[in-house]
Amino acid sequence: MSDWQIFKGTKEPHSIKKWPEPPPWRNFNQQKPQKPPHETFQANDKVINAVNMAIYLRRPLLVTGEPGTGKSSLARAIASELELGDILHWPINTRSTLQEGLYYYDAIARLQDVQLNQEPAPEGKFDIGDYIRLGPLGTAMCSQKQPRVLLIDEIDKSDIDLPNDLLNIFEEGYFIIEELRRLKKYLKYHTVTVQSDDDSTYKVVDGKIICQHFPIIIMTSNGEREFPLPFKRRCIQLEIKRPTLEELTNIVKAHLGDDLTKDIEKTIKEFRDKRDKQQGTLATDQLLNVVFMFLNNPNLDDEEKQAIKERLMAYLNTTGDK
Questions:
Q1: What is the C-alpha separation between 74 and 90, in angstroms, rounded?
Q2: What is the per-residue DSSP string for 236-298?
Q3: Structurally, how many domains does the chain consist of?
Q4: Is residue 34 part of a domain?
Q5: CA quadruple 47, 51, 54, 57: dihedral positive or negative?
Q6: Phi first, then psi: what are they for 239, rounded to 5°?
Q7: Structure pTM?
C-alpha cells in the first residue's frame, strides 16, 4: 500500500498523527488565509471590457459558459478588487421567484409572538419591521454608500417568468414592500426599519425602496435555455470560453504556486486535450484537484498518478469507472 493512502481498507484501526493540509479552496477554518479572488481569477481583455461596460451602463452582466469556467468567481473577483465587501448571492432553482429575491415577510411569526405575549405590548415591540427581511436582490437595491455586487447564480434554471419579472426591477430601479405601504392607512409614521440579507438594517419610507447605487449584477447561465430577446437586450452579454493551455497553466499557478514539475505540465496538456475531444464535460477545478494531489504526494509512482488522473479527470457525465 502506498504512503499517500490514509484509509487502507485493512480493518486494522490506526490513528492519524497529522492530517493532510486541505486545498486552498477547501480551507473552511481559515487557519491559512485564502488568496483574494482577484488574485486567482484569470480575467482576459474580453471579460474586463464587459465588466466595465456593465458598470458604466448600469446593466446586469449575463455570463454564459460551461461549468467550471469561472462564471461565479468573476463576481467575487470584482467585489474583492473594487473593495465592495462580500458579494450578495442568490442561487436560482425552478421554484425561485422575484418575491424571494426582494424580501420575505414572516407574518406567522409575528402573529405567534403577539399571541404568546400575555402583557400589553410596549411601544415598538412586535414592530412589523422585525419580521421583514430583504432578500439578496432587495439588499443590493438599497445600498446607499456604494454599489454592491450581486451574484444571481444559474438563472437558466429559473421559472420561465423570472427573467421578465427581473426586467421591471432593473428598468424601474425601485420596488414596493406592500405590507409597509399599507401602514399609511393606519399609522402616523411611515418609516420602518427592516433587516437586510447581510444582517444590517435599512429604513424604508412609505414601503418604497429606491435604488441609489445600481448594483453590479452578475447573472450566470450554463447555456441550458434561451432567454427572451427583451431580457438579453437589457443585459451586457459575455461568454466565458474554455481556458487555453496558457490560461490553464496560469490558473494552476495562481492557486497552487509557480513550482510546476514537467509531470504537472504534461498533465495540464492531457487535461486540455481530453477536454477538447468534446466527449463530455470537464471543469477546471478537476485539473486543480489532480495537481494538488501530485504536489502533496511527491512519492506517487506512475500507476498511482494514472489512477488519480482517471478518477479526478473523468468526464462529468461518467462515474470515473471504466
A1: 15
A2: EEEE-PPP-HHHHHHHHHHHH-S---HHHHHHHHHHHHHHHTTSS---HHHHHHHHHHHHH-T
A3: 2
A4: no
A5: negative
A6: -110, 120
A7: 0.84
Cα atoms in the 13 Å half-sphere on the side-chain side of 172: 12
Query: How far is the C-alpha of 148 from the C-alpha of 171, rounded, in Å?
Result: 17
- What's the length of the chain? 322
Co-location of 269 and 281 in the same domain: yes
- pLDDT digit string (tens) for 178-230? 888 887 776 666 788 898 998 889 998 888 999 989 999 999 998 888 898 99
Q: Are residues 196 and 276 in the same domain?
A: no
List residues bridging with 238 in a β-sheet: 63
CB 129 within 8 A of CB 194: yes
Residue 16 lies in a domain: no
- For residue 183, tell me if it sits in a domain: yes
Domain extent, residue 256, equals 242-312
Residue 140, judged by CB atoms within 10 A of its CB (0-12, 13-18, 19+), counts as: buried
Concatenating the DSSP letter of every residue in 140-200 gives HHT-SSSPPEEEEETGGGS-TTHHHHHHHHHHH-EEE-HHHHGGGGT-S--EEEEE-TTS-
Q: Identify whether residues 250 and 140 lie together within a single domain.
A: no
* 26 DSSP assignment: G
Q: Are 66 and 80 in a shared domain?
A: yes
Residue-wise pLDDT tens digits, 57-85? 999 999 998 877 888 899 999 999 999 99
Residue where a domain terminates, one of 212, 239, 266: 239
Q: Is 229 in the same domain as 261?
A: no
Residue 185 shares a structural domain with residue 284? no
CA 144/CA 21 separation, integer angstroms: 41
> In which region does residue 128 sit, left (phi positive, over 0), alpha (psi from -120 to 50) or beta (all else)?
alpha
CATH code for the domain in which residue 212 is found: 3.40.50.300
Report DSSP state, residue 84: -
